[in-house]
Amino acid sequence: MPSAIVLHQAGPAENLIFEPVPVGLPLPGEIRLRHTAIGVNFHDVYVRSGLYQTLALPGVPGIEGVGIVTELGSDVKHLNLGDRVAYIHRGYGAYSEERLLPANAAILVPAGIDDQVVAATLLKGLTAWVLLHEVYAVGPGDWVLVHAATGGVGSLLSQWAAHLGARVIGTVGSDHKMELARRQGCSHVIQYRREDFVARVNEITENEGVQVAYDAVGKDTFMGSLACLAPCGHLANFGQASGPVPPFEVSALFPKSNSLSRPSVFQHLRTTVTLHAAAAALFKALGDRILQPDHITTFDLAQAAQAHRELESRSRQGSVVLTV
C-alpha cells in the first residue's frame, strides 16, 4: 500500500505523519498518478497550522506535484500511460506517493525541464504570471516593489518583471540576500531590518511611488506597502508570512486612488484554457532561462515536517521540494 503524509490535527510540523493510505482505481475523468516531486508552499504551512481551515481532517495536505500517469479513467483520452504531468489542485492530496487526480488538472511537462524544477516553480510561477499579467499588467518603466525578493515567488516575480522592462525594488531580511536579489533582477535592494523600506522606496522613486507592490508578508508590511504606492497604484497582498492583515478602513485607499487585491491563482486560472496558457508561458520562460530558479532544497516525502521547518526558517533561500 502506498503511503502519504496525513494531518490528523492542526498544529506544529510534528503533526505531519507518514502512514499508509489506500489509493483506489480512477473513476471516469480521473487518473492515477505516481509522484516524483511535490512542491512545498506557505499555503501548506497555513493549512497545517490551522490558519487555513480548508482541509478536512484527517487529510493529506499539498496542492501541487509532478509525476507519472499509471492508470486512466475510462473516458480519459487526452493523456496516455507514462505521461509526465504536473498539476496544482485545491482539493489537496499532493503529499503522497500515489494519488487520484482529475484528468483536467494534469498539465503535460515538456522534455528538458527537471521534475524538481517543475515542483519548485509551478504554483509559484503561475502565481507570478497571474500577478504580472492579470492582477496588474506590468510594463516597461513601471516601478515594482517585491517583498521577500529572494523567496520562492519573490525571486520569480523579480526576474519576470525585470524581463518585462520594469524597475524592480526588492526587500530582503539579511545582508547576504542582497546580492542574490540583484542577480535575480532587482535594480534596487532594501535590507528592511536596517532601513525603513517606505522611506527608501520614496527616495529611490523620487517620491513618485511604485505602480504595483507585491506583498506576501502580510501584517508586518501591509501598511508600509500601501504607503509606497504611486497615485492609482495597486497593492497585491498574496500571502501572510508574518500573520494576517488586521482590518483597516477602505477609505485609506482614497487619498491616492489606490486599489487592493487578495488574488487567488485558482480563481484566475479556473478554466482549463487559462491554466494551460499560463503553464505554457511559464514553461517557455523556464526553457528560455528568463526564469532561473535559485537553490532548491529537497527532502524525502517522509521528512515533510522537516521540510516545513525549513520553509518557515528566516535563513532559507529558494524553494523546498519533497521527493518520492
From TrEMBL:
Pfam families reported for this sequence: ADH_N (PF08240), ADH_zinc_N (PF00107)
Segments forming domain Enoyl reductase (ER): 11-322
InterPro entries assigned: ADH-like_C, ADH-like_N, ER, GroES-like_sf, NAD(P)-bd_dom_sf, QOR-like
GO annotations of cellular component type: cytosol
One MF term in the entry's GO annotations: quinone reductase (NADPH) activity
Keywords: NADP, Oxidoreductase
PANTHER family: QUINONE OXIDOREDUCTASE PIG3-RELATED, QUINONE OXIDOREDUCTASE-RELATED
Protein name from the UniProt record: Quinone oxidoreductase
Organism this protein belongs to: Pollutimonas subterranea
